[in-house]
Design a protein that fits this description.
Elements: H1 2-22, E1 39-49, E2 52-61, E3 74-78, E4 84-89, E5 91-93, E6 115-118, E7 149-157, E8 170-175, E9 181-183, E10 187-189, E11 193-195, E12 202-204, E13 207-215, H2 217-220, E14 226-232, E15 235-239, E16 258-259, H3 266-270, H4 274-277, E17 282-283, E18 291-300, E19 304-313, E20 320-321, E21 324-328, E22 335-339, E23 341-346, E24 356-361, E25 368-369, E26 377-385, E27 402-405, E28 408-409, H5 433-449
Parallel strand pairs: 14-18, 16-17
Antiparallel strand pairs: 1-2, 1-13, 2-7, 3-6, 3-8, 4-7, 5-6, 9-13, 10-13, 11-12, 14-15, 18-19, 19-26, 20-25, 21-24, 21-27, 22-26, 23-24, 27-28
Length: 450
Amino acid sequence: MAAVGGSAAACAVLLAAVLLFSAPATTEAYDSLDPNGNITIKWDIISWTPDGYVATVTMFNYQQFRHIAAPGWSLGWAWAKKEVIWSMVGAQATEQGDCSKFKSSPPHCCKKEPNIVDLLPGTPFNQQIANCCKAGVIKTFNQDPANAASSFQISVGLAGTTNKTVKVPRNFTLKAPGPGYTCGRAIVGKPTRFYSSDGRRATQALMTWNVTCTYSQFLAQKTPSCCVSLSSFYNDTIVNCPTCSCGCQNNVTHPGSCVNDNSPYLQSAINGPGKITGQPLVQCTSHMCPIRVHWHVKLNYKDYWRVKVTITNFNYRRNYSDWNLVAQHPNFNNITKLFSFNYKPLTPYGGRINDTAMFWGMKFYNDFLNQAGPLGNAQSEVLMQKDSETFTLDKGWAFPRRVYFNGDNCVMPSPDSYPWLPNASPLTKQPLTLPVLVFSIVLATLLAYV
């Protein structure tokens, strides 16, 4: 009987282990610096038509520091029945599909799984609605709340004309512009309320459903996109980005993986096949990252200390517009002055700790980070007041804990490689070893002659 019980217990443990290791990785999209960040898609049916409905679809970016850059978003889904898109305002389907069964006035799109993109700036006004036509670019609420949403209007046919006959689309996908976002299922919710410009009248959608999409850097790219290097005034050592942070030079088996800035073939490489797909063409470096962030501890005053931050673009194929930088450091609760960057504190821990800061360039000054070359950098200095109880230059305290560029986590150097204080250099880490050894030899010699 005991053997049977032991066997059952062993089987239970084995089954639990199998379930544990076969379970999907549900936490890989979680970001502790932006735990509630997501893009919410709201689908509001505003009127019925003879064979369907007209809806306004809006994407709200609720992420604190991750925006959708050019060439912008593309949104897809699968229809639940045999719906078609009769017309659109503020966006368009990339393909019409097979509309041969319609004898006259074919629909805008007949595909079972349409793919929708935003219209470009300069679109005629009769094809626009509010929050449309930005080439798919969506800013963050922190940087530009007025442009943190994108909308379009869609007229759907063969869909049903009541709340009971309309079916919610399935399998939503959001590309921005590549992979990275995972969307949940559409959930029917409380109808959205709309208020008139004077705020005296409220109307509501006939039906509303919401879709939540979360971002995972692991899904977006196989390798990191940025790295961090460090230096300080008290040590001549410059700690470079870790070797192969974002990839390794491999021009032997994969020609064109990187290019030198003085190469005679630079321009032809820039205009090569990867230009169409947007594949990065980076300058040949030991780290092979498109972006490097350099943190330099510049000065140490009696009551203040100063840091210089430099962002360098090593990508020959991309200009980073409306970029942002997020860093984590315990002294960010005492930022006194900032030069040439905008700044906003982030409180990812419910306001209890203020150790995370978001920086971005000033409009029409340095919010546009040029491609690799002499002008491909932006820099600023941060002046912080010291907290006498915590401030120290020892053991790497003056360097950031984490750094993000455009929402992606950057590769940090190993802590044991950080610049050492002169009185805490590796050579003096074990100051008693040599004296103790000498003393032991002398003592042994003296005892031998006693």
